[in-house]
Design a protein that fits this description.
Length: 591
């Protein structure tokens, strides 16, 4: 019993008196509760052999007093080489997280006491691996990450490290949210380089100022609007923001109806996307390093932006443009001529959508000026099969994607010619091109027989058209809304996606698909018989290929038996086997 009581005449060291003021412990051992005087803890060896105590041991360990619940730091036995000193008496550890922590010294003061009642039951282990906790926190949405910081100090530290190391953030701002909420979240991410905001509340220049102050190294900004939000940012405010953010390379903004006139000057901006533009008196882009621009204008009748002047300015101030996307009902042949006069030698992708006044003459101007296009989108134009012929004559080797949706003047013959003359084509969209306008109304659908009897013979060849495509590189084909298509024959070994939505007059008996790599077929709005034919063809090919095994004759030549590939003496191509085993069943999608 002598070793269990401290001697009353023993003087108290001065350094211990200083530590006593912090209330960090007593004379009792922090492991077994016995007095420290002349005491050698028997549990030292036991703890060194078992570095991580289980939750059951922690719960069953009886402590004599609250002051003894202290994470002391006795001298542990020397660990073997390259083995970390075990951290005892901590339910969760975050020291091995691969992120720089600037607050490592804070644990000496606040985090010394451990409350066993607040430990998590981690399946008997008593300790969650730090790398697992980091991976879990990294996948949490911002709201859950903010809530997790309220659990304990350890979780708060990991949450703070997550915010500090974040480089990309996507936030949805509620309707009644204040600017201070967004600012407090952004200030947690000093290293943020990519920000995406989905606004359900109104956005104005105050939001831009908050972003500029909180994100000094911002590289990409995306502001998306909803039906409940209004973008009140003006052209001058956006111009100042772009000029001040010298690191900004990517800017995308929706709801730009209030910009009016603006001037954007930046030497770092390379990608610019603005939508819902309306009645802009001045649009100046002084961006010498701009490579991609997307301008989507409002489809209102009173929209009167001068696109010709805009195209002339792009050619002078943005010589490195590679991708141009413009969607406007004001697109005309004069706008195309202004674009061709700009002489953008690096142009690779050109998309001019909804320009009903773009004709075959416009196609000729484009083909003569830009002979290295990889993508050409003239959806909604008035080009005909002659324009398709010009495209094929100039771009036979470089064109990879051709989109001619909503072009009522092209026929199946022009589409077949394009597929035959463009050997490197990978994507073709001809939706709503081979269609009969009289069959789109509900009344015409109810009286199909009457309408067909009244249809003149000169128009029948436009309604009942057949399409035959044989292509070795085509991967995606879209024929949505082609109500005038009657027969379809496809021989495309690389085709993976086929869109036949609203092909109402496609005859199931005149459908043939020879596409072994087909993964999805969209058939919404089609006849039930056509859907059943599609399923039989694509699924039948899959089952036939999946049930194929080599056969081998017995030595006496009496019969044939099926043997696995591993027992076949014939050489077998492992690459083909992997491709066949990894092939997925084709899905016929009907919404």
């Amino acid at each position: 019993m002598e070793g269990r009581h401290s001697h009353p005449s023993t003087p108290i060291p001065d350094d211990f008196v200083q530590k006593r003021g912090k209330k960090r412990g007593s004379y009792n051992c922090g492991r077994c509760g016995l007095p420290k005087k002349g005491h050698v803890c028997d549990l030292t060896k036991e703890f060194s052999e078992v570095p991580t105590p289980t939750s059951s041991d922690a719960k069953s360990f009886v402590l004599p007093s609250p002051l003894s619940v202290v994470r002391t730091k006795p001298t542990p036995p020397l660990p073997p080489p390259r083995q970390a000193v075990p951290q005892l008496r901590r339910a969760l550890s975050f020291d091995d997280i691969g992120v720089t922590d600037d607050d490592e010294g804070e644990g000496e003061g606040e985090g010394e006491f451990l409350d066993f009642e607040s430990e998590l039951d981690l399946g008997g282990s008593g300790k969650l691996p730090a790398n697992c906790l980091w991976e879990v926190f990294k996948r949490l949405p911002p709201s859950s990450l903010l809530s997790s910081a309220k659990v304990c100090k350890g979780w708060r530290d990991v949450s703070r490290r997550i915010w500090k190391s974040a480089e990309e953030l996507r936030l949805e701002v509620p309707v009644k949210a204040q600017i201070g909420l967004v600012g407090s979240v952004l200030q947690k991410c000093p290293g943020l380089v990519k920000l995406s905001l989905r606004m359900k509340s109104d956005v104005d220049a105050t939001m831009l100022a908050c972003i500029a102050f909180s994100c000094p190294n911002l590289d990409s900004l995306e502001i998306l609007t909803s039906d409940t939000s209004v973008n009140r940012i003006t052209g001058d405010e956006l111009g100042r923001f772009v000029a001040d953010k010298r690191c900004l390379t990517n800017l995308k903004m929706e709801g730009c109806s209030n910009l009016r006139g603006f001037t954007l000057s930046s030497t770092s901006l390379s990608t610019l996307c603005l939508s819902e533009l309306f009645c802009h008196s001045k649009m100046v882009f002084n961006c010498p390093n701009l490579k991609e621009i997307s301008l989507i204008f409002s489809r209102q009748e009173n929209e009167n932006t001068d696109l010709t002047a805009m195209m002339n300015g792009l050619g002078r101030s943005c010589p490195r443009l590679q991708n141009i996307h413009v969607a406007s009902v004001r697109l005309t042949h004069a706008v195309v001529l202004a674009l061709t006069a700009a002489n953008l030698r690096g142009l690779r992708m050109l998309s001019l959508i909804l320009g009903s006044e773009i004709t075959d003459a416009s196609v000729a101007a484009i083909a003569s000026s830009y002979s290295r296009l990889e993508l050409l989108d003239l959806s909604g134009s008035s080009i005909s099969d002659s324009g398709i012929g010009m495209i094929c004559n100039v771009l036979p080797e470089t064109l990879l994607k051709l989109l001619l949706a909503l072009c009522p003047n092209i026929t199946s013959s022009g589409i077949q010619f394009a597929a035959a003359q463009l050997p490197n084509l990978e994507l073709m969209d001809c939706g709503m091109s081979i269609c009969d306008p009289d069959l789109d109304s509900p009344a015409a659908q109810e009286n199909d027989n009457v309408e067909l009897q009244r249809t003149p013979s000169s128009k029948l060849h436009l309604i009942y058209q057949k399409l035959i495509i044989k292509h070795s590189h085509l991967k995606k084909l879209s024929l949505w809304g082609c109500s005038g298509l009657d027969a379809l024959y496809l021989n495309c070994p690389e085709l993976s996606d086929l869109n036949l939505n609203s092909c109402m007059n496609l005859n199931p008996g005149r459908l043939l698909l020879q596409c072994p790599n087909l993964e999805s077929v969209h058939a919404s709005g089609c006849q039930d018989a056509l859907v059943e034919t599609l399923r039989n063809q694509v699924c039948g090919d899959f089952m036939a290929e999946d049930d194929h095994f080599p056969c081998k004759r017995l030595p006496d030549g009496s019969k044939r038996i099926r043997v696995p590939h591993s027992y076949s003496p014939q050489p077998f191509d492992d690459g083909k086997r992997k491709r066949r085993l990894s092939k997925q069943r084709c899905a016929v999608l009907v919404y």
